[in-house]
Amino acid sequence: MTEADVDGVSAVRVRGWQAAYRGLMPQAYLDAMSVTADAERRRSWFARRSPEVADLVAEAAGEVIGWASVGPARDPDIAPGAEELPAPRPTAGELFALYVTPRLIGTGVGRALLAAATDHAGTKGFRALYLWVVRGNTRARRFYERAGFEPDGVEETYEVGGRSVPELRYRRPLTAGTP
After folding, report:
1. Which helix (H) or strand (E) holds 171?
2. d(CA 16, CA 98)
3. Which of 40, 45, 62, 176 has the smallest C-beta neighbourhood within 10 Å, fewest atoms?
4. What is the pTM for the complete model shown?
5. Would you call 85 helix, strand, or coil by DSSP?
6. pLDDT of 61-119, one tens digit each?
């Protein structure tokens, strides 16, 4: 991903949230999401992100159609010291995000991005890859389960637009150097 991809990534992310979380998060919150505002935040983040984080994009005809972000795991129970990167180096990675243009879900774009993110995590020496998924997002849960991820029993909630949204943490073991 380059800075030139930020607008496209934001469009994929916002449209992805609006499609995937309909009925799982307050509709007013989803309707109020702005590609422009997201792109502004993403540009700021892009300028100061850790070099340990890899942002991968899928493109078709010069248009961003998917985005994945992967890096060292952040949860203290699986990555002690993660808040003090780069040392000690976590042995687990985290898939922070994976979004595909909603009309292209089911076409293989998500599988390709997940494979690339998993490969990246393996080449960084991570022994496991974690991710968080909204509990009610059955499509995403099936997708990750088909890719070898399993819930690890940890659940957290966060607030979105005044509503508590439960997330489940998933884990997939990796062999260093291979996806």
Report:
1. strand 163-173
2. 9
3. 62
4. 0.88
5. coil
6. 999 999 999 999 988 887 654 444 445 556 899 999 999 999 999 999 999 999 999 99
